[in-house]
Design goal:
The chain is an alpha/beta fold. The protein is 31% helix and 20% strand. A seven-stranded parallel sheet has the order 1-10-9-6-2-3-5, sandwiched between helices. The chain has a three-stranded antiparallel sheet with strand order 4-8-7. Helix 1 packs across helix 2. It starts with a strand and ends with a strand. Bound molecules: 6-phosphogluconic acid.
Length: 225
Protein backbone atom coordinates (compact mmCIF):
# COMPACT_ATOMS: atom_id res chain seq x y z
CA UNK A 1 0.00 0.00 0.00
CA UNK A 2 1.32 3.42 -0.93
CA UNK A 3 -1.00 6.32 -0.09
CA UNK A 4 -0.18 10.00 -0.03
CA UNK A 5 -2.90 11.89 1.91
CA UNK A 6 -3.09 15.62 1.15
CA UNK A 7 -5.28 17.80 3.39
CA UNK A 8 -6.49 21.22 2.15
CA UNK A 9 -7.70 24.21 4.21
CA UNK A 10 -11.07 24.22 2.39
CA UNK A 11 -12.94 22.76 -0.60
CA UNK A 12 -12.33 25.79 -2.80
CA UNK A 13 -8.56 25.55 -2.38
CA UNK A 14 -8.75 21.82 -2.96
CA UNK A 15 -10.60 22.29 -6.28
CA UNK A 16 -8.15 24.92 -7.55
CA UNK A 17 -4.97 23.12 -6.55
CA UNK A 18 -6.18 19.69 -7.65
CA UNK A 19 -7.33 20.97 -11.06
CA UNK A 20 -3.93 22.58 -11.51
CA UNK A 21 -2.19 19.32 -10.58
CA UNK A 22 -4.28 17.23 -13.02
CA UNK A 23 -3.69 19.73 -15.83
CA UNK A 24 0.03 19.84 -15.21
CA UNK A 25 0.29 16.03 -15.26
CA UNK A 26 -1.61 15.95 -18.57
CA UNK A 27 0.57 18.75 -19.97
CA UNK A 28 3.75 17.01 -18.89
CA UNK A 29 2.65 13.80 -20.61
CA UNK A 30 1.80 15.70 -23.79
CA UNK A 31 5.33 17.10 -23.97
CA UNK A 32 6.62 13.67 -24.93
CA UNK A 33 3.46 11.92 -26.21
CA UNK A 34 0.93 12.73 -28.93
CA UNK A 35 -2.11 11.81 -26.82
CA UNK A 36 -3.15 11.76 -23.17
CA UNK A 37 -6.21 10.38 -21.39
CA UNK A 38 -8.13 11.68 -18.41
CA UNK A 39 -10.51 9.48 -16.45
CA UNK A 40 -12.93 11.27 -14.10
CA UNK A 41 -15.62 10.33 -11.58
CA UNK A 42 -19.30 11.24 -11.58
CA UNK A 43 -21.27 12.00 -8.45
CA UNK A 44 -21.73 15.26 -6.59
CA UNK A 45 -18.20 16.10 -5.38
CA UNK A 46 -16.08 16.82 -8.49
CA UNK A 47 -18.02 19.69 -10.17
CA UNK A 48 -15.82 22.48 -8.72
CA UNK A 49 -12.67 20.65 -9.87
CA UNK A 50 -14.21 20.25 -13.34
CA UNK A 51 -15.09 23.96 -13.49
CA UNK A 52 -11.54 24.95 -12.77
CA UNK A 53 -10.08 22.33 -15.10
CA UNK A 54 -12.33 23.32 -18.01
CA UNK A 55 -10.87 26.84 -17.94
CA UNK A 56 -7.28 25.58 -18.09
CA UNK A 57 -5.19 26.20 -21.14
CA UNK A 58 -4.02 22.78 -22.40
CA UNK A 59 -3.83 21.00 -25.76
CA UNK A 60 -7.27 19.57 -25.04
CA UNK A 61 -7.66 18.30 -28.60
CA UNK A 62 -4.95 15.76 -27.73
CA UNK A 63 -6.73 14.64 -24.56
CA UNK A 64 -9.38 11.90 -24.43
CA UNK A 65 -11.79 12.12 -21.51
CA UNK A 66 -13.66 9.12 -20.17
CA UNK A 67 -15.73 8.50 -17.05
CA UNK A 68 -14.66 5.87 -14.55
CA UNK A 69 -18.26 4.74 -14.47
CA UNK A 70 -21.68 5.62 -15.87
CA UNK A 71 -25.20 5.07 -14.68
CA UNK A 72 -27.30 3.37 -17.39
CA UNK A 73 -29.59 6.32 -18.08
CA UNK A 74 -29.89 8.50 -21.17
CA UNK A 75 -27.55 11.48 -21.50
CA UNK A 76 -30.09 14.11 -20.44
CA UNK A 77 -31.23 12.23 -17.33
CA UNK A 78 -30.47 14.13 -14.09
CA UNK A 79 -28.46 11.13 -12.85
CA UNK A 80 -26.32 10.88 -15.97
CA UNK A 81 -22.63 11.41 -15.26
CA UNK A 82 -22.13 12.46 -18.91
CA UNK A 83 -24.60 15.26 -18.32
CA UNK A 84 -22.49 16.38 -15.38
CA UNK A 85 -19.38 16.41 -17.58
CA UNK A 86 -21.05 18.34 -20.38
CA UNK A 87 -22.18 20.98 -17.88
CA UNK A 88 -19.01 21.34 -15.87
CA UNK A 89 -16.00 19.90 -17.73
CA UNK A 90 -16.43 19.57 -21.50
CA UNK A 91 -16.78 23.30 -22.12
CA UNK A 92 -14.62 26.43 -22.46
CA UNK A 93 -11.02 25.32 -23.14
CA UNK A 94 -11.87 21.66 -22.49
CA UNK A 95 -14.62 21.67 -25.14
CA UNK A 96 -11.88 20.60 -27.58
CA UNK A 97 -11.26 17.31 -25.73
CA UNK A 98 -12.30 13.99 -27.28
CA UNK A 99 -14.96 12.34 -25.19
CA UNK A 100 -15.74 8.62 -25.09
CA UNK A 101 -19.28 8.24 -23.77
CA UNK A 102 -19.74 4.98 -21.84
CA UNK A 103 -23.51 5.18 -22.34
CA UNK A 104 -24.19 3.74 -25.78
CA UNK A 105 -27.99 3.75 -25.81
CA UNK A 106 -28.12 -0.07 -25.75
CA UNK A 107 -30.90 -1.46 -23.59
CA UNK A 108 -28.42 -2.81 -21.03
CA UNK A 109 -24.76 -2.07 -20.22
CA UNK A 110 -23.95 -5.74 -20.89
CA UNK A 111 -24.72 -5.26 -24.59
CA UNK A 112 -22.35 -2.31 -24.81
CA UNK A 113 -19.29 -4.12 -23.46
CA UNK A 114 -17.68 -5.57 -26.64
CA UNK A 115 -17.91 -2.28 -28.57
CA UNK A 116 -16.65 -0.23 -25.63
CA UNK A 117 -13.69 -2.51 -24.94
CA UNK A 118 -12.48 -1.83 -28.49
CA UNK A 119 -13.17 1.93 -28.36
CA UNK A 120 -11.41 2.33 -25.03
CA UNK A 121 -8.22 0.54 -26.06
CA UNK A 122 -6.33 3.78 -27.00
CA UNK A 123 -6.94 5.40 -23.59
CA UNK A 124 -4.90 2.78 -21.70
CA UNK A 125 -2.80 3.19 -19.73
CA UNK A 126 -4.79 6.15 -18.44
CA UNK A 127 -2.55 9.19 -18.09
CA UNK A 128 -4.45 10.78 -15.20
CA UNK A 129 -7.28 9.11 -13.28
CA UNK A 130 -9.35 10.94 -10.70
CA UNK A 131 -11.59 8.76 -8.54
CA UNK A 132 -14.44 9.52 -6.16
CA UNK A 133 -15.59 7.36 -3.25
CA UNK A 134 -18.87 6.75 -1.44
CA UNK A 135 -19.30 6.34 2.31
CA UNK A 136 -19.69 2.61 1.61
CA UNK A 137 -16.11 2.64 0.22
CA UNK A 138 -17.15 2.04 -3.39
CA UNK A 139 -15.22 3.75 -6.13
CA UNK A 140 -16.24 4.07 -9.77
CA UNK A 141 -19.11 1.50 -9.73
CA UNK A 142 -17.11 -1.07 -7.79
CA UNK A 143 -19.71 -1.43 -5.04
CA UNK A 144 -19.41 -3.81 -2.07
CA UNK A 145 -21.78 -6.70 -2.77
CA UNK A 146 -22.11 -5.91 -6.50
CA UNK A 147 -22.92 -8.83 -8.79
CA UNK A 148 -19.64 -8.71 -10.74
CA UNK A 149 -17.35 -7.21 -8.10
CA UNK A 150 -14.93 -10.15 -7.89
CA UNK A 151 -14.58 -10.19 -11.69
CA UNK A 152 -14.02 -6.42 -11.76
CA UNK A 153 -11.28 -6.66 -9.12
CA UNK A 154 -9.50 -9.61 -10.75
CA UNK A 155 -6.08 -8.90 -12.31
CA UNK A 156 -7.32 -10.27 -15.66
CA UNK A 157 -10.55 -8.26 -15.71
CA UNK A 158 -11.61 -6.76 -19.05
CA UNK A 159 -11.46 -2.94 -19.21
CA UNK A 160 -15.19 -2.46 -18.54
CA UNK A 161 -17.92 -4.51 -16.88
CA UNK A 162 -21.64 -4.14 -16.26
CA UNK A 163 -22.54 -3.83 -12.58
CA UNK A 164 -25.70 -4.17 -10.58
CA UNK A 165 -25.63 -3.46 -6.86
CA UNK A 166 -27.97 -2.67 -4.03
CA UNK A 167 -26.17 0.59 -3.35
CA UNK A 168 -26.60 1.71 -6.97
CA UNK A 169 -29.98 2.97 -8.11
CA UNK A 170 -29.66 1.73 -11.69
CA UNK A 171 -27.48 -0.69 -13.68
CA UNK A 172 -24.01 0.74 -14.22
CA UNK A 173 -20.99 0.31 -16.37
CA UNK A 174 -17.58 0.63 -14.76
CA UNK A 175 -13.92 0.60 -15.61
CA UNK A 176 -12.37 -2.28 -13.72
CA UNK A 177 -9.76 -2.19 -10.96
CA UNK A 178 -6.67 -3.26 -12.98
CA UNK A 179 -7.28 -0.58 -15.64
CA UNK A 180 -7.86 2.14 -13.04
CA UNK A 181 -4.92 0.99 -10.91
CA UNK A 182 -2.65 1.06 -13.94
CA UNK A 183 -3.11 4.81 -14.43
CA UNK A 184 0.17 6.69 -14.61
CA UNK A 185 -1.19 9.24 -12.10
CA UNK A 186 -3.95 8.11 -9.73
CA UNK A 187 -5.91 10.52 -7.49
CA UNK A 188 -8.85 10.24 -5.13
CA UNK A 189 -11.06 13.22 -4.30
CA UNK A 190 -13.02 13.05 -1.04
CA UNK A 191 -14.56 15.66 1.24
CA UNK A 192 -16.04 15.67 4.71
CA UNK A 193 -15.29 13.72 7.90
CA UNK A 194 -17.38 10.67 7.00
CA UNK A 195 -15.46 9.91 3.84
CA UNK A 196 -12.14 10.46 5.59
CA UNK A 197 -13.16 7.97 8.24
CA UNK A 198 -14.40 5.53 5.56
CA UNK A 199 -11.10 5.82 3.69
CA UNK A 200 -9.14 5.10 6.87
CA UNK A 201 -11.34 2.09 7.61
CA UNK A 202 -10.92 0.79 4.05
CA UNK A 203 -7.17 0.58 4.48
CA UNK A 204 -7.64 -2.33 6.90
CA UNK A 205 -10.29 -4.20 4.90
CA UNK A 206 -10.40 -6.60 1.99
CA UNK A 207 -11.24 -5.08 -1.44
CA UNK A 208 -14.40 -7.20 -1.59
CA UNK A 209 -15.66 -5.31 1.48
CA UNK A 210 -14.02 -2.00 0.62
CA UNK A 211 -13.34 -1.81 -3.14
CA UNK A 212 -11.30 1.42 -2.87
CA UNK A 213 -8.69 -0.76 -1.09
CA UNK A 214 -7.87 -2.34 -4.50
CA UNK A 215 -6.58 1.04 -5.73
CA UNK A 216 -4.28 2.02 -2.91
CA UNK A 217 -0.98 0.99 -4.47
CA UNK A 218 0.05 4.37 -5.76
CA UNK A 219 -2.70 6.74 -4.77
CA UNK A 220 -2.80 10.43 -3.85
CA UNK A 221 -5.82 11.33 -1.75
CA UNK A 222 -7.10 14.92 -1.80
CA UNK A 223 -9.28 15.81 1.18
CA UNK A 224 -10.92 18.87 2.66
CA UNK A 225 -13.47 19.22 5.43
O1 LIG B 1 -21.43 7.61 -10.65
C1 LIG B 1 -21.01 7.60 -9.51
O2 LIG B 1 -21.77 7.58 -8.53
C2 LIG B 1 -19.57 7.62 -9.27
O3 LIG B 1 -18.68 7.83 -10.24
C3 LIG B 1 -19.10 7.21 -7.91
O4 LIG B 1 -18.03 6.35 -7.84
C4 LIG B 1 -18.84 8.46 -7.10
O5 LIG B 1 -17.58 8.98 -7.36
C5 LIG B 1 -19.01 8.18 -5.64
O6 LIG B 1 -20.26 7.59 -5.45
C6 LIG B 1 -18.96 9.46 -4.82
O7 LIG B 1 -20.08 10.23 -5.14
P1 LIG B 1 -20.34 11.63 -4.51
O8 LIG B 1 -19.29 12.56 -5.00
O9 LIG B 1 -21.71 12.01 -5.00
O10 LIG B 1 -20.29 11.44 -3.01
Amino acid sequence: MNVDFVEYPDREMLALILADKLASQLGQHLRTNQQASLCVPGGTTPAPVFESLSATDLDWDRVTVVLGDERWVHGEHPRSNSRLLRRHLLKDEAAAANYIDLYTGDATPDEALPGLCARLEPVFPITVALLGMGNDMHTASLFPGADHLAAALAPDAPPVLAIRAEGADEPRITLTAPYLRNAINLHLLITGPEKREAFERAQKLDPLEAPIRALMDNLTVHWAE
